[in-house]
Amino acid sequence: xxxxxHNRRRRAxxxxxxxxxxxxxxxxxxxxDEPAAPAAAPPAVAAAAPLPVxxxxxxxxxxxxxxxxxxxxxxxxxxxxxEDPVVQxxxxxxxxxxxxxxxxxxxxxxxxxxxxxxxxxxxxxxxSKTVLDGKLTLSGGAILYTFPDAGVFNTTxxxxxxxxxTLLSPTIAVYKDIDESRGLYINPSISHTITINDxxxxxxxxxxxxxxxxxxxxxxxxxxGEVADYGLSAQLNYSVTSAFVVxxxxxxxxxxxxxxxxxxxxxxxxxxxxQLVVGISAAYTF
Length: 286
Fold this sequence. Notes:
This protein is of the alpha+beta class. It folds into two domains: 2-29; 62-285, Porin, CATH 2.40.160.
């Protein structure tokens, strides 16, 4: 009997630990033996913001341009001023359509007895504006003509001009002398630009000049108001850089009226009314 009780107690001692193991397994105490849950996905990384596009520099309100021309002779509105080569430098300051230009003509020979001297200095103050959605350009201003070494009286002209920005760029310019001649000069013109490539173009131009009696009497010795001179020109513009342009050109002018032509031939230093000018210009814009 005692042996039987001892065996039953021994079986119970063995069963109790086994039952505890089953209970622990079912309660998750051995979770380390279970497969690990998948890790949570990391939060999505926000896309990098696009780099700001640099803004284009604002267009300048001002510019400075300088140029120098070497021409075979100096002709103004058909009138021969100097039949020998001259150098003609120029400088222009522009701010928001307002421009101030200084232009000179330097003699290179003794033809007028002042080699290397300034024969003429002109000062031009002008304003230009494009209107009607770019279809029309208007300009106006004043020109002061001075002759420091030529022994000629200074004079001043007021002017106004209009250009239609279309085929042949028809332009009309009106000049009124308010000092010496007190005359009126009207100069209509047309021009056409032929593009050769991105660096070169050719500009062809034709113009005619009409003067009233005061203008023609003072400058041409004519008694009445009439069409006076005409001019033809061709100019090749070559951009060495975006700021530096070299321009060889050729110009021809003569007088339409026979009496004026005869008078100008007699008064011209080369005995001709028709004038051919060959020149080259170098211009730089800052």
